[in-house]
Write a structure and sequence with these properties.
Elements lengths: L9 H16 L10 H15 L10 H13 L11 H20 L25 H9 L4 H12 L4 H6 L5 E2 L4 E4 L8 E4 L2 H18 L21 H14 L3 H5 L4 H14 L4 H8 L10 H4 L10
Antiparallel strand pairs: 1-2, 2-3
Length: 308
């Protein structure tokens, strides 16, 4: 898209004019070329038209997230490469101003979701490839090790969430994993693949059952230690390090992989397979879309947006 394109929808033309007045009344600095804010809103409105959205009240999180993905992948109008982080932040900030103007003029009844874009990009060095993930699974020596990889990578859980898991949270019939108290005490359901389901079922019905014979049969924890008690996050992380050492792969051992790195890895792999940012956000239990999980999209060639 270039700014030479014009808005075709009369209602959108009126919205841009209203926003122009909104900006001028507040005396926002417009930069050397002028109309920085108006041009950003104009680009958003033209993008909406190109996406088939011609009524501003129809804009929801699916559209704003798709537009966010578009901004991340959009080539610069001058020079090479994609938009700088500060430029993307400016566009998102301007969307916030535009939404405020729409609310004041009663053009929309409620706010629409605007993604955030900040610092904290995950170092690719700590992201495992799918080949390396398979290597970990292939070198497991117990059911509990396979189960741990399944929830850390296959379900994208945080270390603290894994530690808190109870057996009842693994719903074998529905194929869903319940995270009852995620970050911020938020509850979510995570779909389990057939392979994850198989690993957890084998662990629960065989190895875990055997470990609790003669001990506390009422223990609720999914992951138990040698004494039949809930395994701590530290023990679970040590278990992962043991799996990594069992691969005898020097490069993998040097990567300093933690359970949280497996969570980053599944996010990256979902993105590589064109999962939408909104799906990844819900899968990981994030209240916001963080750059930790979009750096892979930033480096991709521009592709059609896929959202869920």
């Amino acid at each position: 898209m270039t700014m030479k394109k014009t808005i075709k929808t009369p209602a959108y033309e009126n919205l841009l004019k209203e926003f122009d007045r909104f900006v001028k009344v507040r005396n926002y600095k417009q930069g050397q070329r002028g109309k920085m804010y108006q041009n950003a809103v104009k680009e958003f409105l033209i993008w909406l038209e190109d996406s088939g959205v011609t009524k501003i009240k129809d804009v929801d999180s699916q559209e704003t997230i798709s537009y966010f993905e578009y901004l991340i992948a959009r080539p610069k109008q001058r020079g090479e490469g994609t938009l700088a982080e500060k430029t993307i932040k400016f566009h998102l900030f301007t969307m916030g101003l535009f939404m405020l103007n729409l609310l004041e003029n009663k053009e929309i009844d409620k706010e629409f979701y605007i993604p955030t874009y900040g610092n904290g990009i995950q170092n690719p060095r700590n992201i495992l490839s799918t080949v390396e993930v398979k290597m970990l699974f292939d070198n497991c020596t117990s059911e509990i090790e396979r189960a741990l990889l399944s929830v850390a990578y296959g379900c994208g859980l945080r270390r603290s969430e894994i530690e808190k898991l109870d057996v009842k949270d693994v719903q074998l019939t529905s194929g869903m994993l319940m995270v009852r108290k995620g970050k911020g005490s938020k509850r979510r359901e995570v779909p389990m693949s057939d392979s994850v389901l198989k690993c957890l079922k084998q662990y629960i019905t065989e190895e875990r059952y055997q470990k609790l014979i003669g001990r506390n049969q009422l223990e609720e924890a999914l992951f138990v230690n040698a004494r039949g008690k809930r395994a701590s996050g530290e023990i679970l992380n040590d278990m992962l390090k043991r799996i990594i050492e069992q691969t005898d792969n020097y490069e993998l051992i040097q990567k300093d992989i933690s359970l949280h790195c497996l969570r980053h890895s599944i996010a990256s792999h979902l993105s590589d397979n064109d999962a939408g940012i909104e799906f990844i956000r819900r899968f990981l239990g994030h209240s916001e879309i963080n750059t930790t999980y979009i750096y892979a999209i930033k480096n991709k060639k521009r592709k059609p947006v896929v959202t869920f």
